[in-house]
Design brief:
Rossmann fold, Tumour Suppressor Smad4, globular, ATP binding
Length: 287
């Protein structure tokens, strides 16, 4: 394995492979308990989320290599989407000790690196995970199909799905919320979807809530996000920055996802900002 050979030139390296949900978290927790300096996670956003969860609160650093279909968190740090280029960037970062503590979010006790989606986008992720065997082969066209299927068929756009309290401010009727720990929200090919450019690891959480789910509003939002302008508050959209806590609830269950990993439905969700939760290896971009 080229990654192993490259890292083993200057480091003592042990390779472990995951084969079921939760494995990466347990391996990361073991590495932290043993006092290892760093865990290099090579996988998609779900794998990286599990490793970050296992390392949160410890003195073991996380380094990341892109190995998934979208690699949102890796790319948001400026890391190349090609594994061997990314490996050079991260190796230089480790050699130069470019390691710092960054914040994470936490939803119902589980950490997230870049965002939690509640409502519509969680319904899209659930559709994709139903066809997980096609995800690696088809990639982003599958997400586009799932988005259309959820929009026109499976997701109810007539009635609100939950209520929110954002640092004590009440929003009674919501259809779709994204709580961001960083930006971009996701990528479409090489294009970043900049839902909230103000979101960053160095800041508290940013919350974007859609109080309407109309086609003109979503198309306008998507156009603005792809241009890099982000979403602006309006009669149909609420934008909150510098947020510490978000509470969501409703009598009927609503879906949610963390870092692109569908976690099912719930009637209550507590989200909080967790400062300095994770030691992170920063890539060296200019080399």
């Amino acid at each position: 394995m080229l990654v192993h050979q490259h890292l083993a030139k200057n480091h003592d390296v042990q390779v472990v492979e995951t084969n079921e949900r939760g494995h990466a978290t347990r391996f990361a927790q073991d590495a932290a308990a043993r006092g290892l300096d760093c865990v290099v996670a090579f996988g998609g956003d779900g794998t990286l989320n599990e490793v970050a969860t296992g390392l949160a609160g410890s003195d073991t650093a996380l380094a990341m290599l892109p190995g998934g279909s979208t690699n949102v968190f890796v790319r948001s740090l400026g890391i190349a989407n090609e594994p061997m280029v990314a490996l050079t960037q991260l190796t230089l970062g480790m050699e130069r000790n470019e390691i710092e503590r960054v914040s994470l979010g936490r939803a119902n006790g589980r950490y997230f690196c870049f965002h939690t989606g509640v409502g519509y986008d969680a319904a899209v992720v659930e559709q994709v995970e139903r066809r997980s065997s096609l995800k690696r082969l088809v990639g982003q066209p599958l997400f586009a199909y799932a988005a259309m299927q959820a929009w026109f068929v499976s997701y109810n756009r007539k009635y609100p799905h939950f209520t929110l309290d954002i640092d004590g401010r009440h929003i009674p009727n919501a259809f779709f919320t994204v709580v961001l720990n960083t930006n971009p929200y996701t990528y479409v090919g090489k294009h970043a979807i900049n839902l909230a450019p103000a979101a960053a690891l160095e800041k508290k959480l940013t919350v974007v809530t859609f109080r309407k789910m109309t086609t003109p509003l979503i198309l306008k939002t998507l156009y603005s996000a792809m241009r890099g302008d982000g979403v602006h508050a309006s009669s149909g959209v609420d934008v909150a920055t510098d947020v510490e806590k978000v509470s969501l609830s409703f009598p009927a269950p609503f879906p949610y996802q963390l870092d692109g990993d569908y976690l099912g439905e719930t009637t209550s969700l507590e989200i909080e900002h967790c400062p300095a939760a994770l030691l992170l290896v920063r890539p060296t971009i200019d080399f």
